[in-house]
Structures
1.
Amino acid sequence: MAQQWTGKTYGGERLHQSLINALRYIDVRLVYLFAAIFVVPVCLVLNQSRKTAYEYFRWHLNYGRCKAAWYTYLNHCKFAQVIVDKFAMYAGKRFEVEVEGFDKFSALASRPEGFLHLSSHIGNYEIAGYTLISEQKRINAVVYAHEKESVMRNRNNMFGKTNIRMIALREDMSHLYEIDNELTSGNIVSFPTDRSAGAVKCVECKFLGKVAKFPQGPFSVATMRGLDVLAVNVMKQGWKKYKIYVTPLPYDKTASRKEQMRQLAEGYVAELEKRVRQYPTQWFNFYDFWN
């Protein structure tokens, strides 16, 4: 990834399908090893992501020079593993998943009102789509519209087996009507909340020692309707294990709308920072996030 986020997975359809076919028979650890030895070093040489990752470790987590350099490599290795895991799921493989806070999700899913998931580009959120499943409510994942066709098709195939659908962010803003309809129907909408992606309105919060911009949209949707909100982060813990953290984000629904959005944004960012510090190599925003 260069300095601006494109929202697309690397590689073409032929490469993606070849990887899926191979992972039906190959242990994912062999692919991890290949990526660590051959793919990641090339990416570090050719890609500006090494610079932004190093700055994240050096200036936001305050690591020393050598530690920041080493963790930049580990960060890219972990990112490669998460990508491999996604394609392994498309190939039919499964991972062990532990959920912390599932009772919070179940309690909201049992109510007639809709609610929101707020996610981040840390860990592997896509795993949540195959684990946090509600029979009562449909889950609608808001996704970037210009992702590679092969990735979108595989997601649709996987999500088609569950009560999940995708809502693509579109320039004509038609996705807003879909979101409104789903929430009116009492369903769940999941937003990526750590990338503004050109959003006109943003909320500024202190994150890892410096002010960063977060898209206002998810906080606006929640406070407009007085919806309950969960932060959902899915972190890789081993070669075959993930842990999902489900955390309620309370806010004063009697306060002014502006104050509600501030409380909700700060609560979300505090939870995000907690998980990033807990799993520092699983921060996957490879661009100048604070600028």
Note: The first strand starts at residue 96 and ends at 100.
2.
Amino acid sequence: MLEVQNIVKTYGDVNAVNGISFKVEPGKIYGLLGKNGAGKSTTMNIMTGYIGATSGTVTIDGHDIFKEAGKAKKHIGYLPEIPPLYTDMTVYEYLEFCAQLKEVPKKERDSVIYDVMTQVQIDDIENRLIKNLSKGYKQRVGLAQALIGYPDIIILDEPTVGLDPSQMVEIRELIKELGKSHTVILSSHILSEIQAVCDYVFIIDNGRLIASDYVENLASNLNSTTELILSVKGDENSIRDILENIDAISEFNISNGENGSLCLVLKMNSNSDIRENLSMDLAKAGIVILEMKENKQSLEDVFIELTEKEEN
């Protein structure tokens, strides 16, 4: 549906985007994750035809965004980081203006506007001036304009920036709902947002795409380690003998815990699951397991590891 091929954007000697390529298929919520200044917004601006690329192509439903802008843009709705609102208009007036710009047939405009307002839950404020709305409601109005014309793809640049925690939760839930009927691409530097909302993530750093996968697969594909943390009671020497004979354990540490217990921290390959066999071995040796938990890499751990590799 949407394909980005080797896009480059330079400003003088600076490569803001440096050879990024990826494909977006229908039915998923995609996240562009990166630190501030990584190139996310520039990439989105190129994808939507807002700015040109120094080189490379963007095709949407087979239409080149630079050569067939009108046909390509019919398939996308875009919410920039700063919503393009005319604050002296009422909500309805603004959405009607957007519908005209998007060439929604006159006889359909009213029903389209009310349908979109209902989707983003602003139908009760249609007659209020935009300048009098809260930041959260302004963001919803911005989302509404992106939905006018029922585009296949919704592109959202930092959609929760500046919102309070409750507004952030509301917008995230709204994005999930939109993902049921649209392909959604959103950018963020907030790891928890990507993890909470997105199915698939592209990680961008210094203008380059450094990783892409389903959120749950990123850690395992790095060949990283998983930690297993146990609280046990028993003979320390017996425990050491057991741990030293398990090949999957690359490293372990034993320290004193509470009430005479021992705390074990085991590191192993992320694809190894030794919990069942370890439990049996410890039980045979008379070691009592008080607690066992697995500590897998979070998206934050993956992000830090990848970006540090790029810098080194």
Note: The radius of gyration is 25 Å.
